[in-house]
Amino acid sequence: MHERQGTVDAVVIGAGIAGLMAASRLTAHGHSVLVLDKSRGIGGRMATRRVGEAVCDHGAQFFTQRTHDFHGVIEPAVHDGAVAEWCRGFSRDGSIGADRPAADDGHPRYRGVRGMTDLPKWLAARLATQGHEVEVRTTAQATSVAVGDDRVRVTIEGQNAPAEVVEAAGCVLTAPVPQALDLLAAGGSLDQLDAHAIERLRTVAYDPCFAVLLVLDRPSLMPEPGAIQFGSDAPGPVAWVADNQKKGISAVPALTVHATGAFSREHFDVPPDDVAGMLIDAVRPWIDGDPRTAVVERSVHRWKFATPTTVLPDPFVAASWSPPILCCGDAFAGPRVEGAFSSGAAAGMLFAERLAGGSR
Fold first, then answer.
1. In what order do the strands lie in the sheet with 254-259?
2. Which residue segment(s) compose the domain that 155 sits in?
3. CA 267/CA 121 separation, integer angstroms
4. CATH (domain of 251)
5. pTM of the entire structure?
6. How many domains does the chain have?
7. pLDDT digit string, tens, across residues 91-116
8. Is 26 among the domain residues?
């Protein structure tokens, strides 16, 4: 296999919000960084896609901000037109139409102005203007992370390109933890790392999630503000349903339906069309008309590692400090978007200090 060679200070695997924040902290301290993502775009589970004429958020649906650091990012993102407040609460009672008032707990829920990918795109654009050496590369899949001579060697495979090996002083892994461990195993590195840290990482588990996107031929019957967040004790297969038009990102009515973790685990290997049929039946009360004709297009996405069910209390876990190999993301010190932000920022900051000669 022909290989190309390259060298940077740090490789960040994953271009979601955790990876982008880790890269931001590293470049702010003058380090060269390569960010890799196997997908065609950035954002990770902050994902938006087109289905016909509709625009649908099919991963994370909104985010909140409760910490000073995250507020310091969201405020300029709002000013720049990348982020907007959506609402201050969602219905949880399964109401139809406007027969019940929208829930309001006074705490803002935010969305991307054009979709949830807007925030990571805005972060990536700011990263590119920081004046330091940074590259964000998509459709580039890391296949192994190997350790040797206090350096890491990351093997990358891209579309229609020879394999590439990049050597770096260290690596930040923001992929779901089982995938991060697979990369380290593929590089033959596990026995060179902190055994206690590896055992802790092996305790992290995730729920899968089916996301079904339904483009409608007429407005839905969803209550304001356009979404229902079902409680964990709610019966049925649906955890979340939202109308992307009422949310403000789609020109045409289109529902995003998220299945519960229990339903998604049970039906993980069921044909996607069968899963879609079951979830359409479950949200039929919010579809105006017969779904056989009212649903004009549909798409099914299966997230294997959607929601951490085990969250480690630390903002990141160092599988090694010589060289630095840090695992971070939404399974560390708090789930969801803000948790991933804080985790990536903390990992990037400590990594930068380590490269600068700080002790741990």
1. 227-229, 238-243, 254-259, 206-216, 295-308
2. 3-45+121-203+310-355
3. 33
4. 3.90.660.10
5. 0.93
6. 2
7. 876 666 555 556 677 789 999 999 99
8. yes
